[in-house]
Every structure is written in structure tokens, then in C-alpha cells.
Design goal:
two-stranded parallel ribbon, 216 residues, Rossmann fold, alpha/beta
Length: 216
């Protein structure tokens, strides 16, 4: 299975590409914004595609040609304004979904925010609410996009080394999770068709990642 990793140069994305390249049966195509980011992925044996998420659907769809799945890990980051939140976390995500369909790709894994329900938007701070709203509508678009989707809602992200064990369910108690473990959850979801059509929260726990994904 060839996987287009959107946001490959991000903290989760780098882990995803590395894990895919180390796995059996999966290979990565890293979608990056700048040519100078390519070398580190090519050193892993991964293909690269230089595309900006603010480009049009046709341009993004070219990056998805010939792949079997798309993983969307991109995010505007904590230091950008509301405009970039809309352009990347909402519009960029939706354009990628439409690009996947245009390229004939059915499998789509989306990394969302921990809680994107309507109540979470209302409860969020003024500065955080636009981000939650963007993720909410991206999630809803994907669920209606006629794609074989998995939506993953990770807890508070850390750069700790992954434990390889998580707690995953439709709703879990808020907690943290290493980015490396989120990447492993993504790969496990790609490898297990039982995750198709599923949406779940995931935090650090005591269950092996493959077993946790299989039990959703």
C-alpha cells in the first residue's frame, strides 16, 4: 500500500513516514511544502511531492495519483492566526479529501483535535475556538465524502518517546499522548480495515496499539 502523507514535515508526519518505511507492505510518499525538505525523506527511501496546501484541488490531486491511501497530519500550528487555521485545518483538509476522490483514492485517515463536538466549540477559549470549529467541519466533511475514512482524535501531544501502548475508544478521559504513538496509531489504522468508518479518541494507556485499534 502506497500512502500519501500530507504534512509529512510536521512532527507527527515525520514519525508516520519513518514508521511506514520501516513497515512491511507500506510505502510512503511525503507531501512537503519546500524542495529543501525532501532530502531527509528520500534518505528513508520515501517518494516526495512538493505541494502547498493552499494550492488548488487539481494540484493536490496530482500528488495523490497512484497512491492507495491518504493520511492528513497537517496543521496550521499554534503561532498562526485565524486565517491560516481556516486555510490549512479546514480548507486544506477539505481540498485534500476532494483531491483524493479526484485521484481515485478511497482510503483517508485524518488527524483531528481531541474533541471537535459542537459543545467543544462553545466551551473553547476565544483564541482556540476557531481551531476547534475548523476541525469540527473538516471531520463532518470527511464523514460525508464517500471515502473509507478513519478520524483520530489524539489527546495532548508530547514529544516523549512512544510507549507503544494507548487507550482508544469513542470517548476517553482527557490525557496526553506522545506524537510517536499517534503516528503508530495511524499506521495500525492503515493496516487494519476494521478501522474504516471509525472515529475515536486516543491517549496513553496500557493496551498495545494494534490491539487498541482492532478493538475500536
Amino acid at each position: 500500500m502506497k500512502v500519501l502523507v500530507v504534512g509529512a514535515n510536521g512532527q507527527i508526519g515525520k514519525h508516520v513516514v519513518s514508521l511506514i518505511q520501516d513497515s512491511e507492505g507500506l510505502e510512503a510518499r511525503a507531501m512537503i511544502r519546500k524542495e529543501e525538505q525532501a532530502a531527509s525523506f528520500e534518505n528513508l527511501g520515501a517518494e516526495t511531492a512538493v505541494v502547498d496546501l493552499e494550492d488548488d484541488i487539481k494540484t493536490i490531486s496530482k500528488a495523490a495519483e497512484g497512491v492507495d491511501a491518504v493520511v492528513f497530519t497537517a496543521g496550521s500550528g499554534p503561532n498562526t492566526g485565524k486565517d491560516k487555521t481556516i486555510l490549512i485545518d479546514l480548507d486544506g483538509a477539505v481540498k485534500t479529501m476532494e483531491a483524493a476522490k479526484a485521484a481515485g483514492v478511497k482510503r483517508f485517515v485524518l488527524i483531528s483535535s481531541f474533541d471537535t463536538r459542537r459543545e467543544a466549540i462553545q466551551a473553547a477559549s476565544e483564541s482556540f475556538a476557531p481551531y476547534v470549529a475548523a476541525k469540527h467541519y473538516a471531520d463532518e466533511w470527511l464523514k460525508r465524502a464517500d471515502l473509507d475514512y478513519t478520524i483520530i482524535h489524539p489527546g495532548r501531544l508530547t514529544n516523549d518517546k512512544g510507549k507503544g501502548q494507548v487507550h482508544a475508544a469513542v470517548e476517553v478521559e482527557r490525557n496526553e499522548i506522545p506524537r510517536e504513538d499517534v503516528a503508530a496509531v495511524i499506521v495500525a489504522s492503515l493496516e487494519n480495515e476494521a478501522s474504516i468508518g471509525k472515529e475515536f479518541q486516543v491517549v496513553t494507556g496500557n493496551t498495545k496499539i494494534e490491539e487498541a485499534v482492532a478493538s475500536i
